[in-house]
Amino acid sequence: MRPTKSSSWFNSFAKITSRATGRPTAFMMAVAVIVVWVLTGPLFHFSDTWQLVINTGTKPEQSELL
After folding, report:
1. For residue 63, how many other CB atoms are within 10 A of its CB?
2. Could you tell me which residues come within 8 angstroms of residue 57 by beta carbon, excluding any fewer than 6 positions away?
3. Does pTM top 0.85 for this prediction?
4. CA-to-CA dists, residue 53 to 21, 50, 60, angstroms
5. pLDDT averaged over consecutive 10-residue blocks of the chain (66 residues)?
6. Which ranges constitute the DSSP H helices of the chain?
7. Residues 33-41: contacts with CB under 8 Å, at least 24 apart
8. How many helices (H) and strands (E) does the chain have?
9. C-beta of residue 41 within 8 angstroms of C-beta of residue 50
10. What is the pLDDT of residue 40?
């Protein structure tokens, strides 16, 4: 079965987004965010709010992988 060509705004948006997030730069930015979060742990005494920041920020990515 051949894929159909669609020129909808959503299809265009999905293609652009998938190309951007699949680049090494996007991966390195994600790693940088996690490193900064880890390094700020002692500053915030590893509080519940500190943990909530990374949990909230990474939840959308986890959902997309399912």
Report:
1. 8
2. 33
3. no
4. 21, 5, 13
5. 70 88 88 93 94 83 55
6. 9-21, 24-39, 48-65
7. 33/57
8. 3, 0
9. yes
10. 95
Amino acid letter for position 5: K
Q: Which residue has the tokens 């680049």?
A: 23
Structure tokens at 24: 């090494």
SS3 30: helix
pLDDT at 64: 57
| C-alpha to C-alpha distance for 49 and 55, rounded to whole angstroms | 10
Q: Are 59 and 39 in contact (CB under 8 A)?
A: no
pLDDT of residue 26: 86
What is the rounded (10 degree) CA torsion for 42, 39, 44, 56? -140
